[in-house]
Amino acid sequence: MDQPCPRLVFAALRGGAGKTTISVAVVVALQKRGITVVPFKKGPDYIDAAWLALAASKPCYNLDAFLMGREQVVRSFSRRFKEGSLALIEGNRGLYDGVNSAGAYSTAELAKLVKAPVVLILDCDKVTRTVAAMVLGCQHLDPEVDIRGVILNRVGGNRHAAIARKSVEEICKLPVLGVLPRLTEVDFPFPERHLGLIPPQEHDRAGKILNRAGDIAEKHLDLEHLIRIARSAPHWKVEGLQRTDSLEEAVCKPVTIGVIRDTAFQFYYHENIEALAEGGARIIEISAIEDSKLPAVDALYIGGGFPETQAGLLAENKAFRQSLRGAVENGLPVYAECGGFIYLGEFLTVGDIHYPMVGALPVTFGMEKRPQGHGYTILEVGKDNPFFPVGTILNGHEFHYCRILSCGAGVDRMAFRVKLGTGMDGSHDGLMENNVLAGFTHLHALGTPLWAPALIGAARRYKEGQDDQPALDLYRQQQAATPILK
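Structure (tokenized):
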């Protein structure tokens, strides 16, 4: 069945060109006009997605063909776009940048997959007519990519704007849909850390920033033209959507899964939490900073974040740390990624200060000035563990400035062999202790459909001592009937 599906991809020629700030600004402005925007983020990013979600007042969904496969990208988009009246997809890196010279998994490939028109955001700092050459190159590199307009960003003045606009419109035959001047932090205070923005959870003026962003979009962008381009996208064919991303509620008996979510730990895909809930789990959010003890849960999920920025507060909450360590020693199933992995260790060193962490894992960490692991990962499960069968291949990603200073466990307690990426030591990831599995790699529930039922199954075993094999067998049969393309 074909349905109207207004949609738009914002892309650029490189990272740091202003995609996120302009995407957020457009979402805010459209929402103020009564247009309900469903935001999507191409790639594995959490922070851009968090800002887009805040701007839209609804979850931002990640679309990443490497993590979840092309078929699951289409399924997820088909399921989500109906939640609003316009879908806005923010790309990542440059339009044609992928994992190889062919541009595999690039924003361009995603735009073609979801048949969405593309608007290029160009950083015009210190260039004029050359912007037309850059746009022309994008048009000719792959004519199947439907580039429909250009936004000029970081323009120096009226003369600069006039030359750049005329060059693009005359040479590339594309409309210029907006011209944004160079904005100072006072004008548009989106502070950055590492390779992106500071998460909104750490920002005390997020609401004011969003309002300012919406005003800037109204003033400098042709929103009506952007809306027309989105509405010109071809109808979307929706047929036979199958919910293969989670177990049916009837398969698993109800369990309670805790999720540590505070200013230290915010990196969670909405689809991961959703998959747990759809699998029959009751989700409760926990703060490692404010809660005095771990509440009664059947399993715990600790995502990534920036524990280094909150290390003092995490260390000060000794009661919670002791409570969590005791639960781990009593067999509580815990799945932890990146920042959660660091938190479960013994110490985190930031500068010259050694902050005590939970102490549930025999490992210490230190923050560095450069990334220690950054990019997609491929892991092979090589050891028996509480969650994944041996031989399972997992596609994920990692991004951390932390390195392991010492580890009191050998490779026999590391569940994963690293086929692509860095992991803990370049060859292994996934440290096991009791019913804990923790590592640097992040997984997406749609790309690892066994993840949610595995965590739910571990919670059930912990709660009732009941074997979950029938549930997993049923789930695997469902997956075999509707294979996910990689």
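The two ends are 25 Å apart (CA to CA). Confidence is low (pLDDT under 50) at residues 241-252, 466-486.
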